[in-house]
Structure formats: structure tokens, C-alpha cells
Amino acid sequence: MLKSIKLRATLILVFLVISVIYCLPNVIEPQGAWKRYLPSDKIHLGLDLKGGMHLLLELDTVKLLQNMVDRKFNAFKDAMIRDGVRFLGLEKKEHALFVTIRAEQKEKLYNIAGKDFPDLKAGSTKVEGENLVIEFLLSEKELANIKDNAVNQALETIRNRIDQFGVSEPVIVKQGENQILVQLPGIKDPQRALELIGKTAQLEFKLVDEEGSARYTGGEVPEGDEVLSLKARNRETGITTTTPILLKKQTLLSGELLTDARVKIGGEFGNEPYVAIEFNSEGARIFDKMTAENVGKRIAIILDNTVYSAPVVRERISGGKASITGGFKMDEAKDLAIVLRAGALPAPVRVVQNITIGPTLGQDSITKGIRATILGGILVIIFMIVYYRFSGVIACFALILNLIYLLGAFSALKATMTLPGIAGIALTIGMGVDSNVLIFERIRDELRLGKTVRAAVDGGYTKAWVAIFDSHITTLITACVLFIFGTGPIKGFAVTLIIGMLINLFTAVFGSKTIFDWILTKYKPRKLSI
Amino acid sequence: MMELLKDTSIDFIGFRKKAFIFSAFLVALGLFAFIMILFGKANLSVDFTGGTNLQIRFKDHVDIGALRKAIVDGGISDVQIQEISGTNDFFIKTKLSDTSKENIQDKISAILSGQIKDKKFEILGSSMVGAGVGKTLKQYAIIAACLAFIGIIIYIAWRFTFISGIAACIATFHDVVAILGVFYILDKELNLLIITALLTIAGYSLQDTVVVFDRIRENMSKMKSKSDFGDTINRSINEVLSRTIVTGISTLIALGALMIFGGEVLFDFSFALVVGLVVGTYSSIFVASPLIFIWRQKARAKTL
Q1: Which among A424, A435, A441, A458 has the fewest CB atoms less than 10 Å away?
Q2: Which domains does chain B show, CATH number per domain?
Q3: Taking CB atoms and an 8 Å cutoff, what residues of chain A touch B256?
Q4: Closest Cβ opposite residue A375 in set B126, B195, B261
Q5: What share of chain B has pLDDT > 90, as a percent?
Q6: Who contacts B84 (Cβ-Cβ below 8 Å, separation ≥6)?
Q7: Terminus-to-terminus CA distance in chain B, angstroms?
Q8: Nearest-CA distance A446 → chain B (Å)
Q9: What is the average pLDDT across A457-471?
Q10: Residue A348: per-residue pLDDT
Q11: What's the rounded Cα separation, in Å, for the pair B291 and B16?
């Protein structure tokens, strides 16, 4: 223990000043020139205190791989046709494609696979009479790679959408293998945000099967077709209706080639919002070709498997501009434009956890919690002073010092304060009180033995120190384990406790002891008020 | 000098049989509750079971029976409703969670607007947890608890004795399990906040035990070879008793304020802490200390 009172007092003061400086932004906003030199971060409040939305999204990897295999299937087919490989059959099963060919075509097939599909691995070959059935599959490593990329892409897309939506201090991080954690503090319209984030936003253009539609009356869907629902809102009543519509399965154009999407107002119904989209040069070329080939036919505009409109192509359209109408409300059109601009998610996401705390509730718990804590603190201070008299005052001084250090450390480390975090502070302060009680009881014991004031204080501190040290270290061990293994709120609790234990140990040595030593040296009292 | 207790000389070790019977009862109750929790039969929050929990505030008074009837009629039969006394707030809990087809919060909102027409309401907060999430949470909690116990045993074994480490952990386990039992009997909801309270209690109980052990360690080194180990323990507990009482009272004061004025969210939390405070103090005196006494007696019997 340091003997010099001056040195210890300086150390206490230096830490106090640093803590106060870090605490300041919570009380007043630094002005003018001060801004450049002083820290400006307030203590971050967790969602449970501030209100907001906590989402855990899970990327549907089954669907993702299915989409991937579908795409490979189509690309493989096209490549074989392009290079003149006469195949007798092409099938997909789980993560593999099975090609049936005549034996002499084998070389050519392997050529294509090697050149165009390096990610496909040749698997088993089965002989069926004169034909060969060759398997091409995505390797485990490739599958893991695809999943990983997809999660990162989804993360990026969601970040993009949230940035454009405008939320301050969002948290968007990957969690585990295929989950994404999104925290949106202080969000006002959680439902809208959820729809914006959770939308896959797969934009597609497909041809309406007019001939099929004429014959189709439910039941068996014609070969190469699919049934989706057409959403329409009645402009007068505002009621949305859906009707089934028969489409050709093949996608003519998709949203990947989009460069821009904006909300515009006007169109055939005067003042209705719609989304104007623009394609890049390749998209424009495809769009041009698609419209040229299908004049007089209907092309459906599909978003996430819902048909928004299916206008008749009146003439060939070049320039790559189109519009999506569908009786949108302004907010809906805005959000649609955002998701189209930000791009599609690689696969649908599922919300596995959604915790929304309304701003009222957050405010409620914070005011009540703080009021109760302050009241509790004052009562404890009164009790300590009544019980230990002047020494109680010194103890309270040490506790307040403790609290300021704690808040300073919180601000400096940019830790997030949550409700469990406040519980951690309460435990820390409780242990601080206990340390003082331990010390004072020891000093009383020493005084009862007839020791002088100075000897009693020194003896009390030395004897109590071992118990204080051991109990704090055991708590510290628990807190560290919780920090490593805990998630969310538990982690918040652990952080506070770790910081708190270290500060407690510091003030137990340097806090009240220094004040005692100073008083004892300066006034040399015969009796101690304890 | 203001003193709540003058020199005491209570024979704590003498109470050990009665204390063990009482503790055995507490632990049995707690383990029963723990098993019920594992099987999902207890009042668990949606954090663990998966499901949806809404906190709703009505503008005017709504009868809880009418509310329940409205929701059940609306097609959600698995529903628990809790009224927050003194307000028009309700907690509505169901094991259903969102699917790609429907959003439970929307469904409940729609039911309420449809069934209880003239009452305006506002959703203050909601949590929806998919069924799989709780499982990982439980796993991590168990791993963390085991590791924390091992860490503590090692540390206390190093600073005190191995037996002390084991005894401290048993006492801590005893306290945590006892709170689970109390919560189970009172049918209070176990949520993440209560788990935090359990951790806090574990911390407090350990602190208490270490303080008692520290005094025993100190008195042991002063102990004359002839004097009885039981007496040493008794004297140590009596010596720290005033500290135990003073710390207990000050903590109780702080928690009482939190319980009375802290609002609905903090009530259960501080309630758990109050129970934990009492049980934690009890266990370091009546469980942890007698345990090392008995252990030592047995060890001595063997060597003789």
C-alpha cells in the first residue's frame, strides 16, 4: 500500500477528473472550442431503456441452395445446348445435377463442366445400357462458401436498406452461421421497418400465359407454367383483392440488372404514387428484346412471387425504363423503391426473434428505475451515517466516488447501458457498501481491544482487505465467464460487473483509507466517530 | 458507537441438523422446479419457450375476462393474460410465433380492434421469439454456469481449501435453486431479467460465504491445537454477524426502494433479489460453514 497521502490523493483526483470529463457529455453538450478536445459520446442506452426494435433474422439456406441449384441447372442446360452436347436427360436432386448422355459425348461434357462450372465437382458415373449417367455436385466446401457469401450479401443489403430508411445508430451484425442481428433504437414505426428489412425483393418479369388462362380452371397447372396471385387494390374502397394468374415459368428479366428505382406521382390515375425503375445497358437490351417479341401480350411484374401488375405491351420499349404500379400508398411506394435500389436478398429471411420496446415503455422503466435507485441510494447513505456517524460520511463519499468512476468508465469504453447493466451497478455498489461495513466492523473490533485510533484504522483496513480482495476476485471470475458465454443482456450485466469489481478494488485501497489517513495525520483525533 | 448486536455467542453449528432439513426441503423444491422448467411446465418467458408476448395499454378500463374472451374467440386459444394492477396495461402471452404466413402481433391487434371496438389501445412493447432460439440460450447458460463454478472452486481451493471451494459452490447452488423454487411456487414468470437476478444472487451469496470463510481461515491460524473446530467456526460466524446484519439491512433498504418504486419491470427482479439476499445470508452461515465442519469431522474420524 502506498504510504504517501499526497500521492494517493493525486491519483484519486486524476481519475476523478478523467471520469468527470468523460461523464460530461451526458449532462451538457460541449460548446465551441471545447468540442474538439472533450469526448462527446454519451452513455449508450440499450434497447430496453431507449425503446426500439431487436430482430434476429435467419437466412433460409435451404431455399438459398435450392435457388443456386436451379440456377446451375438452367445454366448447365444452356451451356450444353450452346456447345452441341446431345444430352438424353438432365435432372437435379438435392445439391447435384445428373446428366444422361451417350458414352461418346463424355469428353465434351467434361470440357464444359471444367471450363464453365469450376465449382461443380464430377461425382459418380453410372452405366445404363449404352448411356452414362454422370453426376455433378456442389462440394461441401462450395456449399459452405455459398452460404457464407449469401449471409454477407444479405447483411450488406439489409444495411443498405436501413441506411436509406434512415435510422440512427443501427446495429447490424452476423450472428452464428446464418443469422443476422439487427437493432434499431428509437424506431417509430416498427411494423414498416420489419417489412422493409424482411422483404426478399426479388423482382421478375414473366409472360402471362393467355392461351393457358383461357383453358385453365384451377387444378392441373399446364407444363412450364405456374400460378401466382395478382394483387389489386380497389381505388375507391381501398380493399385489396387477389386473383390467381397463370404465367410462363421462365423469367424474362430480373431485378439484378436494375440501376435505379424512384417514387413518382402521376400516371393514368392522376395522382397515384408509382415506382419508376431503370435498367443498365444489358437490362435495357433484354427489356427491348422482351417487349419487341411480345407486342400485344401481357407481361407480369412480379415482386416476391406476387404479381403487382400485368400490363399489355403496346409497343417495343427501348431505353430500359419501366414503372411498377399497383395502387400503392406513398409509404409503400417509398419502401418499395428503397428495397429495389438496395437489391434483393439472396434468399428469404425468417424472423426468429423480434423484440420491440415502445418508446413509452423504455421511458417508463428508465424514469422509474432511476428514481428508485436514487431513493435507495439516499436511504442507504442515511443508514450508513446514522450507524457509523462520521466514518459513515467518509464511506458515502467513497461510494459516490465509486459511482462517478463507474459512469466515467462506461462512457469512455462506449459500453451500452441496459437494465441488467443497472442491476450490475447495484451489485457493485452493494459490494462497495459491504467493503466499508467490513472495514468499519474490523476497526470497531480493534478499538474494543483498546488500540489507538491510528493503529485501529490501519489494522481494520489490513484485516478486512483479504476478505474484500477474495470476494471481489471470485465475483470477477464469474463475471468473466458470463462475459464470454453470455449473450445480449447477460453480457451487459457481466461488463458492468467486471468494470465495477476493478473500480471497487481501487477505491477500497485508495478511497476512504486516504481520507482517514489525511484526517488522522492532520487532526490527530483521540477518538474516532464510528 | 451504535450497535445492533452486542457480542453474540450463538451455537450456529449446533443448528446444522435443523438447517440441513430445511435446506434439503428448499433444494428439493428447487430441483423439482428446475425439472419442470426443463420440461417447459413452468411459467417461462417467451425468451425460452418461443412465442409472442405483448404489452398493451388501453385508453379506458377493460375487463380482463372480456379481453381473454375476445382473444380466444378470435382464434388464439393458447393465451395467458396478466393485468398490471393500477393501470390499464396488460401482458398478453402466447406460445405462437410468427410464420412466413402470419404475424402474431398483427393477428392479435386485428382481433382486439375487431372484438373490443370502442376501446382504443396502444402496443407498448412486444417480443416474438422463434422456437429454436431458446434452446441455444439454455445451452449457453448451462455451460456458463458450469465453467463459473469450476473457476470459483479453483480460486477458493487455492486461497482457502479445496473443501471450502466445494462448500461455497454448494451454498451458491442452493441459493439459486431455492429462488427457482420460490418463483415456481408463486407462479412468477422466469425471464432473462430474472436470470440476471439469479446471477446477482450467486455473486452476493459467494461474497457472503467468502467473508465468513475468511474469518474462519483467520481464526484457524490463531487456533490452539486443542480447541474444537466447531467452536472456531461458531466464533468466526459470531464475529462477522454484525457485518452480515448491517450489510443485509443496507442492501434490503436499497432493494426495498427498487421493489416499491421501480415499476412493474423491476418488481419481480428486486423481489428475486430480496429472497436471494435472505437465502444467501442464511446459506453462508447455515450451509457452507457446517459443510466444512462435517467434512473435517469425517476426515478426522478416518485418520483416527
Answers
A1: A458
A2: 13-44+133-303 (1.20.1640.10), 51-129 (3.30.70.3400)
A3: 376
A4: B261
A5: 20
A6: B90, B91, B264
A7: 48
A8: 12
A9: 90
A10: 86
A11: 9
Could you identify the residue written with the cell 395499454?
A: B57
* B136 vs A418, residue with greater confidence: A418
Spatial separation of the C-alpha atoms in residues A528 and A525, rounded to whole Å = 7
Residues of chain A contacting residue B106, judged by C-beta atoms under 8 Å apart = 191
CB contact under 8 A, B125 and A473: no
Q: State how far residue A305 is from chain B, nearest Cα, in angstroms.
A: 13
Domains of chain A: 5-46+360-523 (1.20.1640.10), 61-137 (3.30.70), 203-331 (3.30.1360.200)
Q: Which three cell numbers stand for residue B120?
A: 382504443
Element (H, E) at A340: helix A330-342
CB–CB of B128 and A351 under 8 A?
A: yes
Which of B237, B243, B249, B260 to mutate against chain A (most A CBs within 10 Å)? B243
Report CB contact under 8 Å: B263, A368. Answer: yes
| Contacting residues of B for A193, CB less than 8 Å apart | none
Which pLDDT value is given to residue A269?
Answer: 62
Tell if the CB–CB gap between B193 and A420 is shorter than 8 Å: yes
* Maximum mean pLDDT: which of A17-26, A253-262, B257-266, B280-289: B280-289
Residue A231 has pLDDT above 70, yes or no: yes
d(CA A184, CA A173): 12
| Alpha-carbon gap, residue A492 to A496, rounded angstroms | 6
Q: Letter for the amino acid at A482?
A: L
Judge whether B117 and A455 are in contact, CB under 8 Å: no
| Whether B207 and A353 lie within 8 Å, measured CB to CB | no
Closest CA–CA distance from residue B183 to any residue of chain A (Å): 19
